[in-house]
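Fold Annotation — chain and its backbone
Encoding — discrete vocabulary of local shapes
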Amino acid sequence: MTVLWIVLFAVALTVLIGAATSVRVVQQFERGVVFRFGRLQPQTRGPGLALLVPVADRMQKVNMQVITLPVPAQDGITSDNVTVRVDAVVYYRVVDPVRVAVDVQDYGSAILQVAQASLRSIIGKSELDDLLSNRERLNQGLELMLDNPAVGWGVHIDRVEIKDVVLPESMKRSMSRQAEAERERRSRVITAEGELQASQQLAQAAEVMTSHPAALQLRLLQTVVEVAAEKNSTVVLPFPVELLRFLERWTPSDGPSPAQNGSRPPAGDEQRGDPGEIPAGDPVGRGDDDQDRSLHTTVDEEPQHRDGGERDRPAQPGLPADRSEHDEGDQHEGGEHRVIVPGPM
């Protein structure tokens, strides 16, 4: 009797162990692929309890969720010979659990290696401007490059995004200088366009003021009102330059002075009190008057006589030497002589 109970207990324990090993729980986001004695069963097991044949069946669970795979940064040279460092991220999911379990050993590692190779290929085919500003097209191209081999593995690539593009410091400085120059060019163009529009408006305003002179006066009064509104102690009024030219044109002029044109004044306008000048018609010197000689210091003290008792008149300032000639009627009478100075030519 005791032996019978032991046998029954052993059989019950074996059944419980077999039942525990033959029942599997499949989650909602999973699918079960069953291998019976190593042979693939065509039907996969869905969410819930999955019963397996003890010892004969072995089930492999496949995750059907979207998987996020970060791609490590890859160094490459763009088509315009710029060294960059680019990293990306790949979003994919399993669409055929049977092929994932049978056709590829580790589909996650396979997708990662293909993503790295495709990213380097995209870097070599693209220019730097495309990597910086046209990433949407590059993302689509990278997605197609990854999706072609992944479809045969039962994996679908949902989305590929280029995360960051790292540039060398020298290239960053060059691009900053280029951007600064571009902004300077735009500012100058905008300033020039503003000046052109302002000049056109001013030209139209000048035409209106020319046809209506009262508009200029109204504008002047408006300017005065605007300045006076600021409570300034000094008000500056514009004065037209044309009025100054008009007054200068109609102002009588006395003509140039003798000192400006370099000629001697006429005989009637000379001043007799200046010892530096010799008036025409006055005695140059007397033989018996030492005082008169001291007044006319510019006269040569030792004149040379010519034939007929004439003296050479000394050169005076402002007169050429060839014009200092004695009149033929100049004679010595009573120890004195006179010099007749010709007027200005």
